[in-house]
Design brief:
mainly alpha, Growth Hormone, Chain: A, 18 helices, Permease of the major facilitator superfamily
Length: 446
């Protein structure tokens, strides 16, 4: 039993075993515990208002930062000369610093709780955005984006950790979906609304304004979210580090991680940067049309995140394991990416919507993997997976720029062959990783 009332008047929570079944291909779930409501649980509306909403605001900003350069890159390039590699590095460094923070972040989340960790880190993100708004060279842009990536590195992981602490296991996919859906709304805000804002200010003003919003979100989170007592037995720092190594040694983790990291890593890097140039070069869109296409993609992504979480619980009751749901969705996403690589442009807005919708399927694997381990490891399990995802996103985002840049632009556009090669590589790698995951899907019982 986790004793006493938590901060903010939340009532006692008892620790009970998860009702799920174990994975035949790894550690069973008999060792897993989950916080579930006792006889007097807090009202769902209070949890949504005091836990989900503040973390959703943080993830909204995280995704806005992640994708805003898809619209702003041409404007930045007019002020500071950027080639394809510079654009990839400037935007992709966000993923690298984000990834570098993941392992220590997992330990900090499990040790100090999500409220404190995310509130502090969001201040770094605000500082990075202010620095970016003042930059006048590529190195300065890179430093600003690096600080932003570090500062928002906890936005999803802290939210997932809080969901595990405050909600019973069967509700977690839905709560995770709400958080991820807020990220989708952030991606929408980074497209047509940002394009409209450029009629009132420039890219520097956009970054300065988002920096102010980030400080407001940090204050909102610090003042609103209650603290949740940590489970006993977290151990010292050396034990916590050893448990991270145990996660990475788990064979079941590595049945799920490769497809997840490649699917989500490529999706984030393409949707956050290269989808705009693809719409321009392959679909022949104008800047305003490209912004519309990115808005459609982001709206479909928001819908996808919400539907993945909402459908997961129902489909599991019908006998479809969550791991299988994710695999089917990722297969559809590979199909969409393959169509982009092949240069299919008969209905670019439809393809953009399908790509955005299916790109969210792999998010269910956060819940899949946290079920494998005890509750006290939830933060480290999520950040261990996130590390692989963001390393992949950085490599793909920068690598795409390097590969596409091997071809000279014609009339300001890269040729179809450049896109076929650049997008074909992640398509093939993700397909291979999905085949690697198939034995885990077959072994999992309803």
């Amino acid at each position: 039993m986790v004793g006493g009332k938590g901060a903010g008047g939340l009532e006692n929570f008892s620790v009970a075993p998860s009702p799920g079944t174990g994975f035949p291909w790894g550690i069973p779930l008999t060792s897993r515990t989950h916080a579930v409501p006792s006889s007097a649980p807090p009202a769902a509306s209070a949890l949504l208002r005091r836990v989900v909403l503040p973390f959703a605001a943080g993830y909204f900003l995280s995704y806005l930062y992640r994708t805003v350069n898809a619209v702003l890159a041409p404007e930045i390039g007019r002020a500071i000369h950027l080639d394809g590699s510079d654009i990839g590095l400037m935007t992709g460094i966000y993923f690298m610093t984000f990834a570098a923070a993941q392992l220590p972040l997992g330990i900090l989340l499990d040790r100090f709780g999500p409220r404190r960790v995310e509130s502090l880190l969001l201040c770094f993100a605000a500082a990075g955005a202010f620095a970016f708004s003042l930059a006048d060279s590529v190195p300065a842009l890179v430093v600003g984006r690096a600080l932003v990536g570090f500062g928002v590195s906890s936005c999803l992981m802290a939210a997932l950790k809080a969901n595990v602490q405050f909600f019973p296991p069967q509700r977690i996919p839905l709560m995770n979906g709400i958080i991820l859906g807020a990220g989708g709304l952030g991606a929408i805000a980074a497209t047509a609304p940002v394009q409209a804002a450029l009629h009132l200010t420039d890219w520097r003003g956009v970054y300065a304004g988002v920096a102010l919003l980030t400080l407001a979100a940090a204050s909102f989170l610090w003042l609103t979210v209650p603290d949740r007592p940590q489970a006993a037995g977290a151990g010292g720092l050396r034990v916590q580090i050893a448990e991270v190594a145990e996660i990475y040694r788990d064979p079941g983790f590595w049945r799920v991680a490769p497809a997840t990291m490649l699917s989500m890593g490529s999706f984030m890097s393409i949707q956050g940067l290269w989808a705009g140039p693809w719409l321009r070069d392959v679909a022949g869109f104008t800047p305003d049309q490209s912004a519309t296409g990115l808005t459609v993609m982001a709206a479909a992504m928001a819908l996808g995140y919400l539907s993945v979480g909402a459908m997961a619980e129902r489909l599991e009751k019908l006998g479809v394991p969550a791991i299988t749901q994710g695999a089917v969705g990722m297969a559809l996403h590979v199909l969409a990416l393959g169509a982009m690589a092949a240069g299919w442009s008969a209905a670019p807005l439809t393809l953009a919507a399908f790509y955005g919708l299916t790109g969210t399927a792999c998010s269910i694997n956060y819940a899949v993997l946290t079920r494998r381990f005890p509750l006290r490891l939830a933060g480290r399990v999520n950040t261990s997976l996130n590390l692989t995802i963001f390393v992949a996103a950085f490599i793909i985002q920068w690598g795409l720029g390097a590969m596409i840049g091997l071809w000279d632009k014609v009339d300001g556009r890269w040729p179809p062959m450049a896109w076929a090669v650049g997008l074909g590589v992640p398509t093939g790698l993700t397909l291979l990783a999905l085949l690697w995951q198939v034995p885990a899907c077959r072994a999992e019982k309803p």
